[in-house]
Write a structure and sequence with these properties.
about 350 residues; alpha+beta; BirA Bifunctional Protein, domain 2; two-stranded antiparallel sheet; 11 helices; 9 strands; elongated
Amino acid sequence: MKEQLEAIQVEALEKIAGTDEVKALQEIRVAYLGKKGSLTGVLKGMGKLSKEERPVIGEIANKVRDTITAALDEKSEKLEQEALEKQLEAEAIDITLPGKPVNQGGPHLLTSIVEEIEDLFIGMGYEVREGPEVETDYFNFEALNLPKNHPARDMQDTFYITNELLMRTHTSPVQARTMQEYKGEKPFKMICPGKVYRRDNDDATHSHQFTQIEGLYVDKNVRMSDLKGTLDVFAKKMFGEDREIRLRPSFFPFTEPSVEMDISCKVCHGEGCSVCKGTGWIEILGGGMVHPRVLEMAGYNPKEYSGFAFGMGPERIAMLKYGVNDIRAFYTNDKRFLKQYHQA
């Protein structure tokens, strides 16, 4: 049996040395060390040996198995390394070739405009607030002096979910929520940017979903002159130091008195052109003094506190500032359009 084991070892090592394929190496492993392999077949006859011979033959068998296993592992590692080297050689990359350019994105134009406005008002002591886009009828209308069946509700075509739940038509509900949060006990300044929704036909100047930024300042002895001064700073920072503003009487249910703000046309500098339709002025936003009823419903004493509010559309500001003539360009995700304003 000793001679058989030695013969198996010699034969196995010769075959291992002569093979150059990983698959053939696995077949050799099975042929000699597997359950039906040559070494296993010889070992099955150990039962016929004497007690003195079994340990001797067992030791020899273990050495033969270890020798064959080591030779298989060494050969396998060698073949795998050779295969890897061949693959790397075949798939060699010329690192001197120029790489493909990676196009980098940038902030959306509306994002840049909103952030620019936020930075401006934060610098004037305002905090930035947010609120839910799915709003209640109370905060969207009633808390802003628009009770049920008020005719001014028709000014805003609303997406209703239920009788009391809707998609907010402006960001003014955030103002109402903030005033109620403070419970009429402290002055504050805030702006609230966000998406709003109205049932409108999409065209060059209208969209069913757009962006608004509203501002609110509540304190003692707040006057219309404070509103005008704030809006004058805003206009000059956004459109240039040579811009002038004018306030025209208007109507909003939640402010009294209410105004529309115009800026002087940057194209004709107030002389009149096709952009400003010959007037020399371009409407930019609305605002006014907070209605005493709105203050009262939020817990503020209108005899002690006053405030001003204003609202603007970042899309309109971007269109005027950068000469965009179609609001739909902001939402169609045309990379040719967006790429123009990566540095905006």
